[in-house]
Structures are given as C-alpha cells and as structure tokens.
Amino acid sequence: MGNVPILISNLSKVYSTAKVRVAALQDVSLSLEEGVFAAVTGASGSGKSTLLNLLGGLDTPTSGTIEVRGRKISEMSREELALYRRSGVGMIFQSFNLIPGFNALENVALPLMFAGVAKRERRNRAGEVLAQVGLGARIAHRPSELSGGEQQRVAIARALVNRPRVLLADEPTGNLDSRTSREIVTLLAELNRDQGLTVVMVTHEESLAREFAGRGVRLSDGKVQAEERWR
Amino acid sequence: MRVRDHIGLSFANLWKRKLRTCLTAFGVTIGIGALVSMVSFGKGMQKNVTESFRSLDLFNSLTVFSEDFFTGERFDPDRRPAQPLPSGASRAVLDDAALEKIAALKGVDTVFPDVRIPAIVRFNGKDEFRLVQVIPAKVTSSRMLRFSAGKGYASDEEDSLIISDSLLRQFGVQEPQALLGKKMVISSIGFDFSRLNPANLTAALGGERLPFTTEDTELTIVGVAESQAFAGPIPIQSDVFIPPGVSKRMKKLPFSNIWDLFRAREGRLGYSAINVRLSSPAFVEPVKKEVAGMGLRVFALADQFKEVQKGFLILNMVLAAVGMIAIVVASLGIVNTMVMSILERYSEIGIMKAVGASDRDVRRIFFFESSVIGFIGGVFGFALGWAVSGVINRVVNYFLAKQGVPYIAYFSFPVWLALGAIAFSVAVSLAAGVYPAMRAARVDPVRALRHD
After folding, report:
1. Cβ proximity of A161 and A108 under 8 Å
2. Best interface-test mutation with B: which of A49, A54, A58 has the largest number of B CBs within 10 A?
C-alpha cells in the first residue's frame, strides 16, 4: 500500500427519497499516493463534497470500495467509522463548523476529549497545534470573536490535533476573501510539504488549486472527467 | 470519553440554558418533593405506631376475654369471629380464680383485671366525665405508663391517683409539677340499698326512685401520665388511674357498661377482661394456647400489629402512587427539554460526530445531561419535601396541642429516603433521557453539517 494511501474503486453513491433518486457519484475510481496535495474541482452538484464525505467516513457508499492507508472504510461499522474520523483523518469545511460556545482551545481539544485524553494533556496539545497554525495568541477567543481566516485556522488545528496522516478540506476558502483564501491554501500546502500530510481539497477555485496542488481531479455529474498531474 | 469530561460537559451545556434547566429541574424538584413528603408521612405514622408499641411493652401484652363476651369487638377492631373452643373445654367466667390460674402460667409477669369505673372527676371547680381505670401499683411503675411529672403509687392501698396530662389541660392546668400532692375528687355511682326496701320497691323498679347514689372519694395526685398519642385496644388507656385498694373501698357498680350485664352467668359477672403482661414476646404463643384451653378468648396485640403493618404497606403504596403522578409529569418535562436541546444543537452534534464522537459518546452526553437534571431535582426535591413536611408538622402539632394532643412527629426521614429519593430521581431522568439520547445518536453528520 505504502505509496498509495487512498484507493477508490467503482465508487457510487445514490441518494434516494420516496420520489427522486439522485446518483451523486457513479463508478468513480481513483488512486492518490502518500503525501500528495490533490485538488478536486468541478461545478456545484458534480459530487465533490459527496466524495469527500465518503473519504472522511461521514457517509457510506452505495457500492464500491474506499481504502485509506490500508483500511477498508467502505466496510467499517458505525463504531469503527467514528474511530477513523477521530484519528485516521482530519476534516475542515467551508463554514468552519466550530462549536460557538467553546473558545479556540476548547474547539481544538474536542477530538482529544472523545479520544479519552486527560484535560491537562488536551490543553497542552491543543495549544501546540494552535501555535503551529499561527494562532498561539488567540486561544481564549470564541469563534464569534475571530475572523473567518482565523476560524479556519482553528478548524485546521482541530483537524490535526489527533495527528492524522490525511487531511480533507471541503471548500476551505468558500467563505473567505481572496487574500485570506490564499493564506489558508498556503498553510495547507506547507503542512503537505513540511509534514508529508496527504491533503485532498475540494474547491471551485481552479486557478488557486493549480498554483499549489500537485494533482487535479475534475468531477462532472458524479464522474471523473479529467485527472491531471500539475507538478 | 472520560466520565469526568461527561460530567463537566453536561454542567457546561446545562449552564448555557440556565432558565430552561432550572424550570425542568424545578419540575423534578416538585415531583420528588411530593413523593418524599408522601412516603415520609407513611413512614412517620408507621414509626410512631411501632415505637409506641415497643415502648409500651405492647408486644408482650395479651388481653383475655370471657368466651361469650358478645361485645368483644369493642376490643377487637377487626372483628374476627370468635375462635371455637377446643373440645372438652367449658365456658369459663373471668373471675379471680381464672386470674390466679393465668398468673401461674410460665412466662406471665403481671396479671390484672380490666376494671373501669364510670365517674365524675372534679377539680378546680370543673367536672369531667371519665372511665377511671383500676391498675395495680406494680403496673404504674412499669414501662406501660410514662410520667411527665411524679411517679406511680407505692402500694395498692394508697389513697392516690394518677391523672393524664391531657385531662389536666382540660382542667386548665399548664404546669403538671405544681399539681403533685393536690387533692382531686372522684365521684362514683353505687347501689343505695335503703331504697330497695319493700315500701319503695315499686317506685324503684318504675324508675321514680332509682336505687343508686353517688359517693365522693378524695385522692391525692401522685403522678401525671403522658397521654397516648394513638388510641387503640391497648391495656392501659384512661385519663385517671387508681389503685385496686381504693377501688375496693369505693362505692361502685360491678360493671362499667350496661351491656356487660348480658355476660352474667347465673348471677356471676366476672371481669370484662384481664390484662396479661408477659416477661418476653416469646411467651405469646404458648400462653395464648394455655388460656384458650381454659375456655377463654385471647387477644394478642402482636397479632394485631401484623394487620397494622399490612395496612401501612397499603397506605405507603397509595401515598407513593400519588407522588408518582408528579414524577411522571416532571419526566415528560425532561423529555421535552432534551428533545428541544437536540433540535437546537443539531449542528453541534454533527460537528462532534465529524471529529470522532461515536454514537455511544453522543448518547452518553445526553444521558448525563438528563441525569444531572435528575440529580439536581432529587437533591432539591428532598430538601423541599423535608421543608414542607416540617412546616406541616409544626402547624398540625400547634393546633392539636391546643386540644391536648401530645406532640407527634408525623413525618419520618430515614437516610435511605434521602439517598433513595436522589437515586430514584436520577433513574427516572435517565429513563426520560432514553428517547432523546437515541435520537441524538442517530443524527446524520452529513445532514447536520449541511444545516447552515
């Protein structure tokens, strides 16, 4: 497996309600090597976010398999998926998804609480990771007291606090201005370069993606339209 | 997730919604408060009865009746049909011979006839009608009688009497100690044989000149007895007690109730009952058997007590059921609060799941929150029940004291009630949290995160 940490084969996801049946992903096969910074692009509704949710273990596929670092996510139980989300993978989102009542430090420490880490240790580790993303001075601020860019940094720190080897970013710059967007993507690229983290970023800003990412995957109507190697 | 973190998180979450938490916990408080005061009332009554039984030596008391004493139910509140006599036994009159025979049985400590003389008790210019009970000196110094002042009389011949503190209050006396040594007049009814001469006979039988007269006996007060809080078929129950010697010298009728005369057999009346005190409750059964063999009927208060206990069990259950209604309402309040909380924290639940909370973690977060509400409600509910019962107890005793009823603690709060109330409150809250917790655990993170 070594250099192929993410292996997706014949992946399909169908959302069906009583009236409609929507195929969000159809027979997608993809492989990403260890330490890659991949950008998934495509129009809205092309299945980008669905792909990322499946990779992050938030959702389960209708058919096909996903393997992340040798573990078959598509066959995991709910309990195993929770463990995988806790420490196997980190996720960030367009709307940051921080808990409003918690300050930066508490938000970052949250995954450690579910991992059963003691309080003092949680605070130490959360503080370290916040310093790493450049927020060492703002640990006691609540999300409402932070700018969008700062909130996304808190979210990144939270995604990394359990030291996963894979980081999934779902439109991380969607709610940010262009300058801040560039800062966030730069941070992701640094993490990828300096720590060897595998980063999969869903975005609609292809130009920004081309500037930093090494691989590009374009989705259209739930299918892979193009796969490119940018560097 | 650690238990400490669960507890910390629940308090933090509940604190964020202070008003709602307080209102919900207040509902539980009222429910538990109602339950606690109901149960403590039942337990209090039970404790009072049990303790007075024990302190008055009633567990080793027997009352013996003559077999065909048809008004037996006066002494036997549950009106059980008379036991048939053992074969070969003949009906016996309850006279001194029978008394001697019973006194000679193994395990019998004291035997005395149940004699009550209708009389007017006169003191401070006031008259009170009472049945004066004759009890031997030995009994007045036993545990069967408790004194608030003075003590029992020294001999059966002394011209003394013992009065109850409740009758004293009727006479307007507040300080029993000051009364010792004072004289009191007992006015009893006796036959006036002078009116039974042939010349008066017709008038006497016609009721125009009844052959009765009253006679005053002056006695010294030597003791003031505490009144019994609970009435019942107990051997010592009167407001005035006199020694047998005095009773013998007094003019009196050989019966206290006109119905007693139906008991007479060839002119022999005997006593209406004999009180027997045993040296230990272990002798109740053997002595009962022996006495029944003499053709007499025995009533043991210990047997009666079993019935009383059954009655208390039912009382406690009814009271608890009333309290439960409040608990059910309160638990619906918890369900409501928790479901509201899930709807508000829908995206928060999604975030927690996305960063690695398992279904079990989420379920427990909600279980802990509802049990914290239950714990708070349980603690305050017990305090409320305790406070309210305290107030009721004071008010009731204040009014009853005016009527001469001694102080009674109507409520009892054993330690198990405090712990049980809190544990029960937590258990009910956990049960109320089952549905919300299951629902929270089922939240789909993808939908929850798409929420905003």
Report:
1. yes
2. A58
Q: Which helix (H) or strand (E) holds A26?
A: strand A21-32
- Which amino acid appears at position B159 of this protein? D
Choose the closest CB to B446 out of A59, A82, A86. Answer: A59
Distances (CA, A) of A41 to A185, A197, A227: 15, 20, 10
Residues B380 and B267 in one domain: no
pLDDT tens, position by position, B242-268: 999 888 888 888 777 777 777 676 667
- The boundaries of the domain holding residue B327 are 3-54+308-450
The alpha carbon of residue B345 is apart from the nearest alpha carbon of chain A, in Å, by 10
User: Do B234 and B314 belong to one domain?
Assistant: no
Question: In this structure, what DSSP letter does residue A85 have?
Answer: I
Give the DSSP letter of residue B265. B
- Say if residue B243 is in the same domain as residue B350: no
Task: State the Cα–Cα distance between residues A155 and A96, nearest whole angstrom.
Answer: 6
Provide the residue-wise pLDDT of chain B in tens; the chain has 452 residues.
Answer: 888 999 999 999 999 889 999 999 999 999 999 999 998 998 888 888 888 777 777 788 888 887 654 444 444 444 444 455 444 445 567 888 888 889 899 989 889 888 888 899 998 888 989 889 998 888 888 877 888 888 888 888 889 999 988 888 888 888 888 888 889 999 998 887 777 777 777 777 777 777 788 889 999 999 988 876 555 556 777 889 999 988 888 888 877 777 777 767 666 778 888 889 888 888 888 998 888 888 788 888 778 778 888 888 898 889 888 888 889 999 999 999 999 999 999 999 999 999 999 999 999 999 999 999 999 999 999 999 999 999 999 999 998 888 777 788 889 888 999 999 999 999 999 999 999 999 999 999 999 988 55
Residues of chain A with CATH 3.40.50.300: 6-89+164-229
User: Which 3 state secondary structure label does DSSP give B226?
Assistant: coil
- A-interface mutation test, from B355, B442, B443, most A Cβ less than 10 A away: B355
- DSSP label of B332: H
Provide ipTM, 2 decimals.
0.94
Looking at domain A6-89+164-229, its CATH architecture is 3-Layer(aba) Sandwich (3.40)
- Which of B17, B62, B119, B43 minimizes the C-alpha distance to B340? B17
Does residue B45 sit in the same domain as residue B127?
no
Which domain-ending residue is among B300, B332, B354?
B300
- Structural domains counted in chain B: 2
Residue B76 CA to residue A225 CA, distance in Å, equals: 99
In the numeric block, the tokens 């207040």 are attached to B26
Chain B CA closest to residue A88: B356
The per-residue pLDDT for range B136-195, each reduced to its tens digit, is 888 888 877 888 888 888 888 889 999 988 888 888 888 888 888 889 999 998 887 777
